[in-house]
Amino acid sequence: MNPIKTFGRRIGIRLHNSEYARLFSEKNDYTQGRKYLIYNTLLANIANIFITGTFYTIFLTVSGIDIVRVGIINFIPYIAWILSPFSPMILGKLRKRRGVLLFNHIFYYLCVVFATTLMPVFVADPLERTVWFGIFLLLGHSSNALLGSGTMAWHIHFIPEGRDRNLFFSLQTLISSVVGTISALGASAAAEALKGSPAQDTIIIVLRYAAFAIFVISGLMVYLIPKEFPYPKPKQKITIKELLTRPIHSYKFIRMVVIGMLWNFICNMNASTWVYYILNTVGMPYAYTYIVSIICALGNLFLLHWWRGLINRHTWFRMLFVTILCTGLLEFPVSFTTSHTIWVYVIVSMVQGFVAVGTNLVFANMFYINLPREENTDIFITFWNLAMNIGVLLGSMFGTFLLAQMEAFGEVTLFDLPFYGSQFLVWLKCILLVALAFFVLKITPKIRPDNPQDA
Q: Is the pTM of this model over 0.90?
């Protein structure tokens, strides 16, 4: 018998009998919806590689935008989220949202990917390019702030409850890391081979256009095929005051919001500028910037079941504390990354990759842990998105401000190594993340969900 066919049949049998099959094997509207959410995860993670992280930084660099302007561009889109309180008022009037959500999806990527890629062809001045980047990003994110939250109110029907939710998100995480890493390595190898040549810029631009096409296909998939369920009709007219006050009265939910905001604030202090630092100051090879993703992908393949077991045994809250603490402690050694100590970055990134497996799984559940089920979901989704984006905005602004002040001092020698503002910013992240971990530990007894299975 053909050994390849035999191996394929064994894999097929294992998948058919696996716990994952339980979520997708039945033929109904819910399993079909889950399948297309998974397909979307597959496509979106391929496309995202080419418009975020290292490739986004390379694109901004070849467009003549320096590290401080990169930081400014990073927080401009989140200003658009001040419009999000109007979202429930618009969505609450729509009994069918399929067409509106598809429009928003395509318009968003038309602005943030297609238009920003095409614009440098017509605009030569780096300052003018920065301004146009900001305009297009603001337009796309404004549309998403007004309409995008309607997606979760639809797709939340496909998310299973309890431990099955951990299982579903673990599969999403597995696909995200494996597919994203393979795509990133292939593309970064091509970019590295062409580094310094005019062809490199062409590759980066072509990949961004390809990403736009993939996003359009994924949008057609998740907005045209799955069943759209009826949306609960608001008992009374939704006002901005109600949007901002009702979630606050949900004691446990609002504390989850605070944790999420603080996490986003701290993590986004250098989310875009750190990549710029290691590429342009340290001179890091492109492929090295994906070490965390590679290890995370391997960890998802072999350790995801172990992480789910830890969550089930020790509760979601305890593992939230552990993952935040580990993430914070690892920030300190990675700050010693210089052109002379690239090996430090490699070693720490490998450890960060293993921790990221658990971190991604834990944070995928955060919104759902204490979500009031009997309330108008649109209100809580909008409030959550607004709060999380405010956290990102404030963190990006704060980090960019500090970096601009520290960069004025230039290079400082510590421990016989060159230190820049980006490294000192990492030290601050370390302190704040450790503090956040112990804050979570302190308030955990007060915010455990009423249903123990959800914890």
A: no
